[in-house]
Amino acid sequence: MKWHVWAAAALMAGMAGSGMAAGAHAPLQLFGTPLAGATRPSLRQVLKAHGMVATREDDRYWADTYDPGSTLEGADAFNVGYVEATGRFANATYRFPAFMDTGLVARVVTMVQAKYGPPSSRTGRVELGPVRARWDFPDGMRIEVSRDWPDTTTYLRFEDREATRVENAEMAAEEQRAARQQAVRQDSAY
Hints:
Layout lengths: L4 H10 L14 E2 L2 E2 L5 H10 L3 E4 L6 E5 L9 E6 L6 E8 L7 H13 L4 E5 L2 E9 L4 E7 L6 E7 H26 L4
Antiparallel strand pairs: 1-2, 3-4, 4-5, 5-6, 6-10, 7-8, 8-9, 9-10
């Protein structure tokens, strides 16, 4: 996969702020919209206005899914998760598929660094193995660029840490509820 210069510009246009000095962070935004406290209806409008094509927008799911192809070259998926109880933004993730492109993660880190300065933490080696770079914001927001291994697919994640914690708790509770229902349904079978 080739990474074009204009793809980098598109990504940076989607992330607000101007070049920040080391340690200073602009509020975390997507397409000029602050993510802290954003709601599902407002983000759906923003994403559509900026060319995101919905593949699933359904309140019965924790996440909406989009095809970001016309928005960000190289990304093949974009998911936005919400807290079910409040509809509050929890996280959003771009996926950049890669086959044996170990340098992709470094290019995405460099783009984010150009906007938000050096990461708060960074682990791993670009040449081999998993890599993680994080930018922590004072308002509980976070950006993370990551790559697992041996898959070189790279992920760019925007996260409200508290809302993601609540979303994860909701998902765990739903999973437990479904397991209990399944056990009750099968109770008469033995």
